[in-house]
Write a structure and sequence with these properties.
By secondary structure, the chain is an alpha+beta fold. The protein contains 14 helices and 14 strands. It has three domains: about 190 residues, Transcription factor LuxR-like, autoinducer-binding domain (Beta-Lactamase), CATH 3.30.450; about 110 residues, PAS domain (Beta-Lactamase, 2-Layer Sandwich); about 70 residues, Arc Repressor Mutant, subunit A. The protein starts with a helix and ends in a 7-residue tail after the last helix.
Length: about 375
Amino acid sequence: MQQDHLLSALIGDIYDAALDPARWRDVLASVARYIGGSSASLFSKTAGRPPGLLVYEYGIEPPYRRLYLDQYIKLDPAPSAGHYTRTGAATTRRIFSEVGQPIAAVDLISPAGFFETRFYREWAHPQGLVDFVSAVLDNSVASAAMFGVFRHKRDGLTDDGARQRMRLIVPHIRRALLVSRLIATRTFEAETLAVAFDGLSSGVIVVDINADVIYANLAGHELLRAGDMLRINGGRLAAADMDSDQILREVIAAVADPTSPQSINDRTLPLVAHDGSHSVAHVLPLTTRLGAGVCSPTGVVLIVHRVALEKPASEAIAKLYRLTPSELRVLLSLVEIGGVPDVAKVLGISEATVRTHVARLFAKTGAARQADLVKIVAGFSSPLVG
């Protein structure tokens, strides 16, 4: 009963470490004691490609840890006694062994042969280590994630009891690492997306089906802080304009209730700031795929941008249409300033010169009117923060 209680508590600690990686060292200390060893490690290894990558460990002094990863991990026990190979024969055997199956050093080489090896003499013996029992947690074609416990001379060679305890604990370590890996992947994805969204000039605001704001990028936060187009009202997102707010509520209600007769084909909100500038919010439904083609509504995302021509990617325009610097300058001036006379005055050149450049712009871009040139530039507007 005491052993069952100890195992149950240890399993709980293992899954706690999946959520809080800082706890792995203490957990490995407990696991080492439970199995019967002085130290334990979680590491990855690629067959034939030393050194390995240590993920978490307990009990190995830093100088020996570094020596193991840099040098001695590639000195694996060979099938014959008395020497080690640099081909990684034994490590390869560990990698391709059955997932979760304990393998000790004495399974790969006789104890007498192991004690004659350079690995034992130079690395294991100075620490009082006599065996290493490990199990593959996850493997691919030529690499593996592994867990192992080093046995001290006071523990003796790996026995049946240690193997059985390994079999009991390894499946939980394996699942915990998979959970930890999934969390790390999702966290990386979320952080990467957040950095990308913060680089957009458009505001991105995500709300759930109750209109509670659950995410906003930097531009979105600025919009909410200004409060003249979108604001937080009673903890929920609202549009300052009553008509726009009604549209927003109807769209969210339609997303929340798939049986609602309300059409959400028109997902745009006109927004007007106090200074008279205009913006538009594109409202898109968010759903979570449950499998078998079934989706569950989760909320909406608003992408808000000003109704104005943003700074165009001028280098891309010049490269695509092979424009000279003078032609590009005239093109951008036509968009920003207006007609030929005004552009000539601002640039300090004659109207005839401007018309010559315009004619060349028509020929290179295929445009027929000045309005067409404006559309081309608008298509190269950058969504990134300037």
